[in-house]
Amino acid sequence: MKILLKNGQVLDEQTGKLIKKDILIVGEMIAKIAAEIEDEEAEVIDVDGKFVSAGFIDMHVHLREPGFEKKETIETGTYAAARGGFTTVACMPNTRPPIDSVEIVQDILAKAEEAGYARVLPIGAITIRQLGQELTDMEALKAAGVIAVSDDGVGVQSSKVMKEAMRKAHSLGLPVVAHCEDDTLAKGGCVHDGEFAKRYGLQGIPSEAESIHVARDILLAEDIGVHYHVCHISAEQSVRLVREAKARGQKVTAEVTPHHLLLCDEDIPEPDAMYKMNPPLRSKKDRAALIQGLKDGTIDIIATDHAPHMVSEKAQGMELAPFGVVGLETAFPLLYTHLVLTGELTLAELVEKMTRKPAELFGLPYGVLAEGKSADITVIDLEEERPVDPNTFKSKGRNTPFSGWQCKGWPVLTIYRGNITWDQADIVVTFEE
Ligand SMILES: NC(=O)N[C@@H](CC(=O)O)C(=O)O
Ligand SMILES: [Zn+2]
Ligand SMILES: [Zn+2]
Fold first, then answer.
1. Which residue CA neighbors atom 3 of ligand 1 most closely?
2. Predicted structure pTM score
3. Beta carbons within 8 Å of 189's beta carbon, 6+ residues apart
């Protein structure tokens, strides 16, 4: 099977400019990239004028299966990924049961393979049942295919357990991916401890609930030398701590979500669970620090923290609804329109944080558009403008604060391992729960 993508616009690594290229895919691989390719046997797809990128990589996704299939399944979550231009997603362990056993890892990999929409890289739990007490059998989890360990969904409260986890993970070459949250500071809060919380008399979650864990973990990791990665970084203090650790040469990395880059607590119009996520949307100053951190390399990558919940759950309101928002299907158009077109980030910077960088950080052989690589390709229309419409989502989750936001940069074609996994012509409005 051969596919020839004709007349695409590809980013030139050196200049950051777009140049016209043809791309020939043979089987699962990129066989050739050149100014002009002809091939009689290939199915030709003319992508004239469209932006062609390496498939996006999202290192932080909640696929919800097993256990929460009403929120999302591996099939719907990876289809949503394909629609968003993603070809690789790492899935977090807070399923039921959690990803703390070899059987669950194998089951996820088998279901992902069967669905065929994207490569799924499971992240194993740090502690058994994510209870924060006893370490999982990381060696067995690694052999089964996990690419990192995390207790995402909750912070590891015990410093002793975290230290042991880092030692173990480091000995196995596994990164520790940390959800940073000190329960004694965060419990009971539903939004950032700032302007919005004050105005509505809601219990706040202070920035230090996150940054205390970031500081603690950087100290713990210092001698161990483990690759320590901060999940969904949200506070200015945390960015500062990561920057300092990097400057000292420590292997500390961080990710930021589209919602923390684009919104702050003052943007929340009224108590509405669509704006409820963990960590919460912070202050204007924090948001500015995140953009700065992304630009200067302190924050390495963008990850969506795609966290689907049911409509009925989100309807419980700000205080009772579960934390989390979806992100896979809107990440690129939102960031392209509201950070690149506004001049805060270049297209090359944005793409790098969603392709080459995450691959580099986690040692994955993907994320670059090059001959001999897996044919993971995203084709994007940088011109067509449309509002975010949750009714069109392929995810089961409809929980986004960005409904109605006008965006350019919609993925029109996604190819994963040489197979078309998303084709915009498919768009149908679906809504079911
Ligand atoms: N981010 C969230 O608000 N929610 C995530 C958990 C998490 O990422 O910590 C979820 O699983 O729903
Ligand atoms: Zn988390
Ligand atoms: Zn998460």
1. 324
2. 0.97
3. 197, 202, 203, 204, 205, 206, 209, 280
